[in-house]
Amino acid sequence: MLNTPAPAASFPARAAKLLSLAVLSLAVLTGCSGGASQSVSTAVKDSSSAVATARIVLRQDMDGKLTKAAASTSLEDELKEVQTSRSTVLKLSPASQEDRDLQKQALDVLDQCAAGFATARAALAANDGGTPSLSHGDKALADAQDALKQLGDKVGSK
User: How many CB atoms lie within 10 A of CB 115?
Assistant: First the structure.
């Protein structure tokens, strides 16, 4: 078999692959900073929705409009949403100190959300007017909601 040079068509194909790789690399390098803010912003939005839903569930339970099982299941589902957001933020690889600070602040706020869910779940389990009460659970979630709003305002201003 004769050694023949590669067909002319393969050079443009290789050049296109190299160009694509270069563009992708550039996007990754320049997008790191925006990526952290965008990921935190998404986590804040998703978690805010989960906390708001959990507060509605608690209020409906307080009003006798939900069974304990339905309320408990809903709180579990919304907590999973917060945990997913936390996992996403935890996996970020921030390049700058500013992004590392933002990641830490986001993790702190998401931990506060998880603690709010723990209080709400304990209140739902007790549900007898003891401690914590459903109003304590709602207050813990309201505080988490406020922290999420503050973080969202900070991320939105970047």
Answer: 14
Q: Encode pLDDT of 45-78 as tens digits.
A: 999 999 999 999 999 998 999 998 999 999 999 9
Take residue 102 and report the two structure tokens written for it: 């933002």
Q: Is residue 98 part of a domain?
A: yes
Total of domains in the chain = 1
DSSP 65: -
In a domain, 111, yes or no: yes
Helices (H), ranges, 63-133: 68-90, 97-126
58 burial via Cβ count (<10 Å: 0-12, 13-18, 19+): buried
Q: List Cα–Cα distances, 136 to 11, 14, 123, 124, in angstroms.
A: 68, 63, 7, 10
Asked if 140 and 123 touch (Cβ cutoff 8 Å), the reply is no
